[in-house]
Design brief:
mainly beta, Metal Binding Protein, Guanine Nucleotide Exchange Factor, Chain A, 1 helix, three-stranded antiparallel sheet, globular
Length: 133
């Protein structure tokens, strides 16, 4: 199956294409991912077979590995947006950076035991289509 997904960082400096399919999609609530995103969880797509092509901004990418852990984060040095990270076994793509539909729904929440105390019953919070006035 030939599937292409395109993505960019917030400022548009980094542009990429992922060729292939995502095997997993997890929402991670670990404390490292919460600090990385400043949010309740990270939303990452995983593939052991997809190929990543950088179209622009590769020189602007910074990668940080948290000492003593397997936690790695790549991001645009200009705007701070997370961008894909690949090692020899796995491609990890931040779902929010894609400009195309990943064609997969989250498989589940991981490290849910570490989730923030305020990350409970969020379905009860009001929904707004824009910033409330």
């Amino acid at each position: 199956m030939n599937v292409n997904h395109s993505g960019t960082c917030l400022c548009g400096e980094v542009r990429y294409t992922v060729h292939g399919v995502f095997e997993r999609f997890y929402l991670c609530h670990c404390s490292h991912c919460r600090k990385d995103t400043g949010s309740a969880h990270a939303a990452n797509l995983f593939s052991s077979s997809a190929k990543l092509t950088w179209h622009s901004g590769e020189a602007s990418i910074t990668t940080f590995q948290l000492a003593g852990t397997r936690h790695v984060r790549s991001f645009c040095a200009k705007c701070g947006s997370p961008v894909p990270f690949a090692d020899t076994h796995m491609l990890v793509v931040p779902a929010g950076g894609l400009d195309t539909d990943p064609r997969i729904l989250p498989d589940g929440h991981i490290f849910a035991g570490s989730r923030a105390t305020w990350d409970r019953d969020l379905h009860e919070a009001r929904w707004y289509d824009a910033l409330p006035t």
